[in-house]
Amino acid sequence: MKDRDQDNSETEATAPETGSVGSQLHAAREAAGLSLTEIATRTRVPIRHLEAIEASNYSALPGSTYTIGFTRSYAKALGLDETALLTELRQELAEGGYQNVARTPEYEPADPARVPSRPLAWGAAALAIALIIVYFIWRSFALAPVAEGDAAKPVAEAPIKDQSGPAKAETQIDPSGQVVITARETVWLKIYDAGNNRLYENEMKAGESFTVPKDANNPMIVTGRPQVLDVTIGGKPVPPLGNGERSIADVGISAAALLARKTEAAPVQNATGASTGPAAESAAQQ
């Protein structure tokens, strides 16, 4: 062990050789003069989960898969030998009976303190319903025939003509096309079917892709960074799975499910032909 550490000393930092994985990470962090807040910023892992790892309190973590993923990110942030640490961690999990534990993830990368409150969720749902009602009211007036006068014709004709554009664009995506998920940055994700059979579970590197089997039974995904994933159907892009404000779980990624989400997120065009809505705002920012 000592010879190996000496050989790697020029390229990689090492953790103390004694104690639990959590105590080794704690000692290495203090030796580097870093706080838990700084580690959380670097890894996007909530502070409460970093504290649980350092204390070897694995029951406070979402599950063994998340524990391993969080620990890997922690070790990378400190420049430690993640392979050796993860080997020790798996042994600790097996000895403590945590190896096969899997619970619904409760972390939120963008807001480590807590998940959104129930009133906030209900408020967002009410706002969405109100926006849908306003849109249909606006659309009924926009499509109403003009009674008289030529001056209003350009305004009346513009929405009708332009609204045919998105509808035609929607038909260009083949619902039987192959769904492919590609990572723009390194991200951990898990893909499984309705029977909870794992189709993919790993840390996907930038540029790597996964092709969702067409015969998969309602394939779904869970990940903490959906904004760095590009999703295509038959080679054509669809809106992102999330904006990165929170992790996602049980999100359908079959072609039918993605097209349903795409229809809901389709932009609304105003009388001048300009698109509005989440998809248009994202395109404008790019």
Automatic annotation (TrEMBL):
InterPro entries: Bact_Cytoskel_RodZ, Cro/C1-type_HTH, Lambda_DNA-bd_dom_sf, RodZ-like_C
Keywords: Membrane, Transmembrane, Transmembrane helix
Record region (Disordered): 1-24, 265-286
SUPFAM superfamilies: lambda repressor-like DNA-binding domains
Domain of life of the organism encoding this protein: Bacteria
TM stretches of this protein: 120-138
Domain (Cytoskeleton protein RodZ-like C-terminal): residue spans on this chain: 180-250
Name of the protein described by the UniProt record: Helix-turn-helix domain-containing protein
Pfam families reported in the protein's UniProt record: HTH_25, RodZ_C
